[in-house]
Amino acid sequence: MKPFTLVSHAVRAKEIISVVARHGFVDLINQIDLPAGLRLRFIDKTQSERTTWERVRLALEDLGPTFVKFGQLMSMRPDALPAALILELRKLQSNVRPVPFAEISPVLIEEFKGSIETHFSEFNETPVASASLAQVYYARLKSDGKSVAVKVQRPNIAKRIGVDLELATWFIGQLHNRVDALKGYDLPGVMAEIKEGVLRELDFENEARNQRYFNTLNPYSENIYAPVVYTEFSGPRVIVMERIDGHFVDSTEIDSETKRKVAAAGARSLMHQILITGFFHADPHAGNVLITAEGKLCFLDWGLAGHLTRRLRYALADFWVAAVDQDAEEIVNIASRLAPPEARLNQRVMEKEVTLALREELNFSIGRQQLGRAMLKLLFIFGRQGIPLSRDYCLMAKAVLAIEEIGRSLDPSFDIREQAAPILKELYQERNGPTTLLKHAKDFTKSTLASLQELPDQIQRLMRRLEHDNLTLNLQHHGLEQLDSGIRSASNRIALGVIIGSLIIGSSLIVNSHQPPFIYGYPLLGITGYLISAALGFYVIWDIIRTGSHK
Q: Whole-structure pTM over 0.90, yes or no?
């Protein structure tokens, strides 16, 4: 963003600067090249009892809904940001003060292409939930009388988010260029990805598609599901879905046996989403999971979903097995295979850091079982070593961490390995079962036969070129230029040496023969030969000294 654009949003820019300063980051502000109109005097109010990362979280909360969402998406990048910051950002809550229904109703009217009463026999104007991007209301459809939940985007939120994202992009670019301590984190790259994620979440049609896709792939529909979406009433800024009545997972009204079953079912479903289908809920925190009266688990808020290719799913399974086995060397080998060709890896350093991370988070001898935290640390280690793994790996690590926390809150004896084991076995069958091996054999045979079919034509083209004598082989040796130059120089000097020697011998014979004409009593022709040989000799000596060949 250019300076004049920053000045055009001067009011909001001053708000951001003031909040950042109030939370003890005056030293960072002083390193930013601010326009004259935004230069203010700040007093450093660093709160020593809070850590740096805590102050970052509190500043984001004070900056409002856009920056709360910004922080939540930052927590999806454990490969680029420290694990301590990621864990602090996960505490950000989206519950914000709701806007009046009078401001929401124009959005509904515009999306429904008519009045609210056209589609709903009842519409409760009091929101049941209010988040950074949207508010949720309960209503009843006029067509069939079903109770529904209506998720409505906040008015003008896209414009406000656009301004805040512009300002955040400018500030982060300044910090990246001017603060040496932050240059290793690729903050502009993180910001660009977060901006893309925020804009994607503003399109509610994407969320509706994710919910429908999950219900289509879900093999545990008797226990796990997502709300059914009424597509005929939904659009870019509104989603109408079935109303889910239930309790959040931290409710005390759920008996312990139901909690234990739900914890196991939720973990098994997430493992299946990640490892088998490659499509998963990327933010299954406690506020996005409901337990119904029938003991079923419902995943809410599908605005953010992860997608893993088959190659990434297979590599992830190998990561998990190696992590459980405390095999740091194998983890580094797997990561190396996923690294870009230009990456320069220090495998010894990586193995040491991976070993330490596994001992801190997956030390089964002392009961430490934090697979999600371990993956966060591993992704950060890989990122620092130049292995930028897929963004969806980061989403996966956060999802696993969230489901582990939910599992332990429901069942103190929860162990994600028990739920992952049958899924890993199913994935192993997918990778190495007879059907897969037969498919690989068919693919190999098909590609081989295709190559063999092309071979006669290739041989015929080669023979035709040989027949017409237009086949040329271009051979070029590199690094022999100095040798060629040296041989030429030596040959020239040897030739001059032979000529000089011949002149000296010939001139000596003429002098001894006393052949006229004479000069000062000596034959002129002999004296001339001596002078020419002397000149050539001095030239050779000077050339050797000039080129440094005497050294």
A: no
How many structural domains comprise the chain? Answer: 4
User: Is 181 part of any domain?
Assistant: yes
Residue 459 has pLDDT above 50, yes or no: yes
pLDDT of 481 reads 62
For 307, the token pair is 């997608």
Alpha-carbon gap, residue 412 to 449, rounded angstroms: 57
Q: DSSP secondary-structure letter at 98? A: P
Q: What are the tens digits of pLDDT across the range 398-437?
A: 888 888 888 888 888 888 888 888 998 888 888 887 776 7
Do 218 and 150 share a structural domain?
Answer: yes
Give me the amino acid identity at 147. S
Question: Is the same domain home to 68 and 180?
Answer: yes
Domain that holds residue 58: 3-92+163-190
Is residue 394 within 8 Å of residue 77, measured between CB atoms? yes
| N-terminal to C-terminal alpha carbon distance within the chain | 59
How crowded is the C-beta side of 300, counted as CA atoms within 13 Å?
24
Q: What percent of the chain has pLDDT over 70?
A: 88
Residue 546 class from Cβ within 10 Å (0-12 exposed, 13-18 middle, 19+ buried)?
exposed
> Both 150 and 34 in a single domain?
no
Residues 50 and 145 placed together within one structural domain of the fold: no
Query: Do 150 and 180 fall into the same domain?
Result: no
Structure tokens at 369: 């079982």
What phi and psi, each to the nearest 5 degrees, are found at residue 133? -105, -25
Distances, alpha carbon 291 to alpha carbons 171, 226, 248, 312, in Å: 42, 12, 6, 31
Cβ neighbourhood burial of 379 (10 Å; 0-12, 13-18, 19+): buried
Same domain, 494 and 522: yes
Is residue 83 scored above 80 in pLDDT? no
Question: Does a structural domain hold residue 442?
Answer: no
